[in-house]
Every structure is written in structure tokens, then in C-alpha cells.
């Protein structure tokens, strides 16, 4: 059903009530939908490795990224602390000819391929599981659901839904295209794959391929294909552990209301407890899936255990 464009507040409230997982895993839960991904699911997923071919699903972390400074999000700044020049000139002070190089990187945790943690988005002052946002994420960071809690858990059955290839033209969806439950179901059917409990779902729109061909443009925050607000029910009903896209903001932009900002985030993160990934590079994996017809694979995508962080850069690895 198409949402009422004039009533984002009502639509968000209704969806939050329908798809809430508050209390489902106890009042102290810090994992949200990752609870669906258990040891049995991982054992089954390991059997998907047949050929041993692996794919990094990360964009580069460098100054050539898409960020433009919105809310102080910048591209990574990489600085050398020690170099081969220092070593060759004898400036390092090490004995017997030893030399070395060291470096440092400064970056927002959500400037490239990343996970949104459970402390990233609030709904009317409430964080995941109904907690008070003011007491959950403070100047000390996310003191309850910091992304470090997820570090051991994000590994299991990955499923690629290449909506760009199945629904789009030339493998790409146009900006502003809302991916509905019907599109997701049709894509899964076309791929001969199922989506269910504990899956790590990857949705390819093709926007990243377009940005690489034509330039970043408005990739960071501008119009984009993405998940429709109406897809919340599909994500909830299928009990997926996580979902990620090749776009900056996961959901369709502009959003499907006259005046709204990331309404699907507002339902999915604080109410469903859903782990959301953004800016994943799915193109090489998608080409391989199209070639061999296998759209399910082993996927590991652990966040860095940065204490109190509400997001984390990652280098997801898919193995087939």
C-alpha cells in the first residue's frame, strides 16, 4: 500500500507499532535482529562455500570518496607518521639498518562502507528496545548498545537481491525508485533464492556503478533508489538479521512523504532493532552470481569493536 504522503508522523507511528521487536529478546538486549542469526544458521551457511572464491564488498577508504561534509561527514584523511624516506635518511634511530613505516587515518565512522549501529537513530527520544535515548547515547558514546557488542556475530548466510538487474534497465534502477516488497519477492524468485530467518540480505540497486561511471555527483545524500517505506513489513516478517545496499542512505530518496527525512530508518533501527548497512560495493559479487546462478553465500561483515560507537566501517567478505 502506498503511504499517505501527507502523514509521515502517522505512517511511522503505525509501522513502529506493527513491527516493533521491543522486549522480544529481553529488556537487556543489545543485538536486535542479530539474535535471528544463531550457531545453527552459521553452520548451514558455511556449507554454501563451494568454489572458495571471495569478494570484498567494501568501497575504498580514501580522499576520493563520496562525502561532501554533510553533518561533518568527510572522506578519510590518511597521514604517514613514518616513511621510507625517514628510514633511508637515518632519521628513525633504529639499530642495524632497521626501518619502518607507520600511518594514521582520521575519518567519520560512516564515511564509506559501514553498518548503522543500534544507537544511530532514535524515535521520539527512544532508542532500541524502548530505552531513553538521552541515557543510551551520551558524550561517552553509546554506553548501552555500542557496536562492539555486535563484533562476534555478523557472519552467516548472505543473500544478494540484485534488484537493479532484475527490475531495472541496464542493471540499474533510476534515482528515486522505491523498492517494494513486490520487487524484492520478484527478484528473489528470478534468482531462485529464498530469504528467511537470520539472513544477511544485500540489495543491489546499481547506483554505485552509475556513480563510478558518471562521477559521485549527489551520491552522498542526494536522490537515490532504495527500500520503500512499505518494505518494513517484508523485513520484519522474514526475520532477517541485517540488510545492506549499495547506496548512501539505504532507503529511497527523496523519501515517500512530502516532508520527511529517512522515515524507514526511524522504524527499522530503534523499533525493529535491524542492522543496516550502506555504501556496499556489490558489483563484482553480482556479476559472479549472475554467471553461476548462486545468489546465496557465506558472508562475514564484522564491525570494528569500537567501544561506544554508533556505526562502524567494515570490509565485508562474501565467499562462494
Task: Give descriptors for this structure.
Glucose Oxidase, domain 1; alpha/beta; 17 strands; nine-stranded mixed β-sheet; 320 residues; single chain; two-stranded antiparallel sheet
Q: Could you list the spans in which at least 5 consecutive residues all have pLDDT below 50? A: none
Count of separate DSSP helical elements? 10
Sheet with the most strands? Answer: 9 strands, mixed
Order of helices and strands: HHEEHEEEEHEEEHEHEHEHEHEHEEE
CATH topology of the largest domain: Glucose Oxidase, domain 1
Would you give an account of this structure?
This protein is α/β, with parallel strands linked by helices and 320 residues long. The protein has two domains: 8-70 and 108-319, Glucose Oxidase, domain 1; 77-106, no CATH class. The protein is built from ten helices and 17 strands. The two termini are 36 Å apart.
Amino acid at each position: 500500500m502506498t503511504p499517505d504522503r501527507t502523514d509521515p508522523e502517522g505512517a511511522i507511528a503505525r509501522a513502529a507499532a506493527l513491527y516493533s521487536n521491543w522486549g522480544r529478546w529481553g529488556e537487556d538486549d543489545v543485538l536486535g535482529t542479530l539474535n535471528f542469526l544463531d550457531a545453527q544458521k552459521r553452520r548451514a551457511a558455511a556449507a554454501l562455500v563451494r568454489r572458495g572464491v571471495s569478494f570484498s564488498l567494501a568501497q575504498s577508504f580514501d580522499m576520493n570518496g563520496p562525502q561532501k561534509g554533510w553533518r561533518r561527514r568527510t572522506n578519510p584523511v590518511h597521514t604517514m607518521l613514518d616513511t621510507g624516506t625517514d628510514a633511508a635518511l637515518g632519521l628513525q634511530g633504529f639499530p642495524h639498518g632497521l626501518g619502518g613505516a607507520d600511518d594514521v587515518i582520521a575519518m567519520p565512522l560512516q564515511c564509506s562502507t559501514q553498518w548503522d549501529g543500534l544507537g544511530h537513530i532514535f524515535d521520539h527520544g527512544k532508542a532500541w528496545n524502548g530505552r531513553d535515548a538521552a541515557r543510551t547515547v551520551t558524550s561517552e558514546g553509546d554506553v548501552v548498545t555500542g557496536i562492539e557488542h555486535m563484533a562476534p556475530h555478523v557472519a552467516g548466510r548472505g543473500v544478494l537481491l540484485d534488484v537493479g538487474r532484475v527490475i531495472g534497465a541496464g542493471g540499474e534502477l533510476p534515482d528515486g525508485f522505491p523498492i517494494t516488497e513486490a520487487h524484492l519477492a520478484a527478484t528473489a524468485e528470478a534468482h531462485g533464492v529464498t530469504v528467511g530467518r537470520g539472513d544477511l540480505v544485500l540489495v543491489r540497486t546499481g547506483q554505485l556503478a552509475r556513480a563510478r561511471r558518471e562521477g559521485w555527483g549527489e551520491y552522498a545524500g542526494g536522490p537515490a533508489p532504495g527500500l520503500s517505506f512499505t518494505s518494513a513489513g517484508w523485513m520484519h516478517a522474514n526475520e532477517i538479521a541485517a540488510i545492506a545496499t549499495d547506496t548512501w542512505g539505504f532507503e529511497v530518496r527523496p523519501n515517500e512523504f512530502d516532508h520527511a527525512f529517512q522515515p524507514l530508518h526511524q522504524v527499522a533501527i530503534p523499533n525493529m532493532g535491524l542492522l543496516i548497512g550502506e555504501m556496499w560495493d556489490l558489483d563484482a559479487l553480482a556479476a559472479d552470481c549472475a554467471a553461476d546462478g548462486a545468489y546465496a553465500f557465506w558472508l562475514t561483515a564484522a564491525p570494528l569493536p569500537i567501544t561506544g560507537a554508533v556505526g562502524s566501517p567494515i570490509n565485508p567478505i562474501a565467499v562462494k
